Every structure is written in C-alpha cells, then in structure tokens.
Amino acid sequence: MIEKTTSILEKYLPKQAAPIIAQWIYQAPCMFKISKNRLSKFGDYRSPFGRKGHRISINHNLNPYAFLVTTVHEFAHLKTWNEYKSRVKPHGKEWKKNFKLLMEPFFNGEILPPDVRAAVTTYLGNPAASSCGDLTLFRTLQRYDQPRAGFVRVEELPPGAAFVLPNGRIFRKGEKMRTRFRCTEIHTGKVYLFSPVAEVKRDVIEHH
To answer: Is 154:164 a contact under the CB 8 Å cutoff?
Structure first.
C-alpha cells in the first residue's frame, strides 16, 4: 500500500521526496488529499475531530518544490498538534521548531535545486504562517511553475486595473497595504486582500 502511495506522490513531488512523505502519511496516520486549486491557500491541516483523524490537503497544481514545502508545512502542524494539542499558537515557536526538523531530510542529496535550498534556508530562520507569505521563497518556487499564457501577477498590474479570477469574478486593483493589495470585487463592492504574486488574468473590458 505504501508503494502505491509513493507512486502517486511521485507525480507531484520530487521523486526522492515521495517515499519520505508516503511514510509520514502512514506513520501519522492521516488522510492526505490532493485538492483542487485554491487561490487563498496552497494547503491546509485539520486536527482530529469526532471520528475523523488528521487531515491534510495540498493543491494539485503546485510545482514539485512548492508541493513539498507546503506538505512539510502542514505535517509540522500535525506533529505540533500531537505534542501540544491546541495549547500553543498555530505558527508559534513549537510549530517553527517542527517545521525546521521536518525539512532536514530534504536537504540531503539532490532533492532541492540550489536556489530553492537557499530560499528555504533563509525562510527557516523565521518561517511565516504561509510559504506564500515569504515573497522571496514564493518567487523562487514560482520559477519552477509551468508558464500560463495570459496570466500576470497582481503586482504587475497598474493601479486601478481590472482583473479576472479563473472562476470569472472580476476585481479592481487598489492600494497596497503592508504586504497585500486591497482589491474591490466589481460586482459586489466587497474588498479583498490579494498577495502581490497571485496570478490573475488582465480584464480587457473596462468596467465602471
């Protein structure tokens, strides 16, 4: 069974990393789901509740290195929950310690290319709540994405430009806050915060 899981994971992870992650899934144990793309997050962890055990989901469309970093991030939550339950902060010092510990096997051999290894090393100095919250790491991981025709990053759009999400929702780019851009959904007038590196499509029709 673990061999089948490893085989499936090899489609999403660097090949050398797949058996390590498969082992984690069975040791936990946890329900590991490869999910549809979610703009707001790369992955998530849910602690045991009722009859359900540990659950982790990772977006299917991440490149192998982004998939790996996100998976380790979520397993660090699982390990921290096993040790402390809900008595500590989700991204406190306990989680940071576990994230660093769980990343160690992937620095061996040739699993990570040099630029990703360097970016992850810097990130491990003080891991953020999300790998996409660290723009240096995110941009490094993004180099390994397959190019998507017609997509641009929010930070590349001029102020006031309209853009479209894959689900058809249309937004107008507003001012930059500390790390994210305030963008208004044109249909509802609601304001949402977008990461500078979120990939969207420029809307060619001018909306007023």
So the answer is: no
Domain boundary among the residues 142, 159, 192 is at: 142
User: What is the per-residue DSSP string for 1-49?
Assistant: -HHHHHHHHTTTS-TTTHHHHHHHHHHTTEEEEEEPP-TT-SEEEE--B
Q: Identity (one letter) of the amino acid at 58? A: I
Handedness of CA 73, 77, 78, 80 (dihedral sign): positive
pLDDT in tens, 63-120: 999 999 999 999 999 999 999 998 998 888 899 899 999 999 999 778 999 999 999 8
Q: How many CB atoms are located within 10 Å of the residue 114 CB?
A: 8
Residue 208 lies in a domain: no
Provide the whole-model pTM. 0.78
With vertex at residue 151, the alpha carbon angle to CA 146 and CA 153, rounded to the nearest 5 degrees, is: 100
d(CA 64, CA 39): 18
Last residue of a domain, one of 142, 171, 193: 142
Can you spell out the DSSP letters for 55-85? Answer: EEEEETTS-HHHHHHHHHHHHHHHHHHHHHT
One-letter amino acid for residue 36 of the chain: K
In this structure, are 64 and 132 located in the same domain?
yes
Position 85 scores a pLDDT of 93
CA separation for the pair 169, 188 (Å, rounded): 10
Q: Are residues 133 and 156 in the same domain?
A: no
Residues facing residue 162 across a β-bridge? 172
Q: In this structure, are 48 and 109 located in the same domain?
A: yes
Domain that holds residue 115: 2-142
